[in-house]
Amino acid sequence: WRRNAACCRQVKFMKSKPGAAMVEMADGYAVDRAITHLNNNFMFGQKLNVCVSKQQAIMPGQSYGLEDGSCSYKDFSGSRNNRFSTPEQAAKNRIQHPSNVLHFFNAPLEVTEENFYEICDELGVKRPSSVKVFSGKSERSSSGLLEWESKSDALETLGFLNHYQMKNPNGPYPYTLKLCFSTAQHAS
């Protein structure tokens, strides 16, 4: 199942190289896919330079506080949000190149275009130019498409909005919004 894995295990921001981070993936194939799909894309006005590290693994070592107050090191190997941690989960995923259209799923049934606008405003990212909510796909949650003017806008929003906790109007547990790139050309 490793051929389907893209599991991100650990992330460590480099104190000695501001703006750089090391990301440990499940295997070499996942590293190759990350390089193929993400290298030379733009996020926040910066060109992503994704390459193989000289180090074989991340050593947690000493972490420090980043500008936003978050920790410089995070272990994702046990995260329940990881969609590649088992062969069954990995088989459900389709790896797509970054695009300006994101597929969303696991949103509240009553989700609206306005909900996405409010969340984007709250997080300080650009609003989608188009939102399409699929009707009748599930009785428990909703899914659909979100489109931005550019691929970099979609990449930036994915970084902030993936795994966002959306309020559940019918219960105590929130919906964990999931995002991935779509093959659709447009959301409308």
From TrEMBL:
Organism for this UniProt entry: Pavo cristatus (Indian peafowl)
Highest taxon of source: Eukaryota
Matching Gene3D superfamilies: 3.30.70.330
Pfam families reported for this sequence: RRM_10 (PF22976), RRM_5 (PF13893)
Heterogeneous nuclear ribonucleoprotein L RRM domain mapped to chain residues: 92-185
Descriptive protein name: Heterogeneous nuclear ribonucleoprotein L RRM domain-containing protein
Any one Gene Ontology molecular-function term assigned to this protein's record: nucleic acid binding
CDD domains in the record: RRM4_hnRNPL
Family matches, as InterPro entries: HNRNPL_RRM, hnRNPL_RRM4, Nucleotide-bd_a/b_plait_sf, RBD_domain_sf
